[in-house]
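As a warm-up, study this chain.
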Amino acid sequence: MNAPLAKDRLSRAAATAAFLRGLSVEITPKQVDKLPLLKEKLAPGSQIFIALIDAGDREAQIAAARAVRAAGFAPVPHVPARFIVDEAALKSRIQALAAAGATTMLVLGGGVPEPLGRYDAAIQLLATGVFEANGVNRIGIAGHPEGNPDITTARGEAALLAALKEKQAYLAGHGLQGFIATQFLFEAGPVAHWAEGLRREGITLPVHVGIPGPATIKTLVKYAAMCGVGNSARFIRKQALNITRLLTVNTPDDFVADLAQLHYERPELGIAAPHLYPFGGFDRLFGWLDGIRG
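Now compare it with the structure written out below.
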């Protein structure tokens, strides 16, 4: 009775560890001081995404991309459309990021309510041709397994699907590799359901799933509220109702294991890799990873 159960647990653990070998990590420009730790804990060539939350951090993001490349990693800077004033500014920015060593970029609409200039959607940036003209050969686009309130409130759920189709078509038509990077969430079920829908609609881009690293319930509730995370956060919010649990650290063990299972057992869904957000700090994140990876 016990032997098959032990074997099942071992295979699940092994699949999880293997899945995590393809992980990427997100930093802000101000977190370049964590690069020595990342060099110690991550394989050379790992993707380090560099967020841009404040338009004023653009120069710092370029410097961070240069430092990430010098450390032996692949920088993946965020390029939010709503932070770009015009095409001249876009050209200058992409040229600088490419010179810093970035050949993969994550092109987003951006989370601010009002654009700084003429762009408010990722497809508008892509359509300029500036990325491929500067040697960028791989583009990430945003995916929202639980919806995006900024878009769906104004234009409906169908707008998200239409936008993904349009961007996929652009990438394919211009010889660019592509992938979808999702918002962070807490359960694999919504990812599987969403990915099934994408495949039915002809969207075949690989999916990199956003995963919150170990953090207190209080911290996760804060980020979930800021980012409009949907139904999968319900168990986090429920735990937050108990004030004695607010400082309890939540780890994504089951979520990552379930994603690994989807990756290996349902390859048609295209669940390609985990993308980790260090909401609870890098020491806590890598302490957890060390335990999972063995």
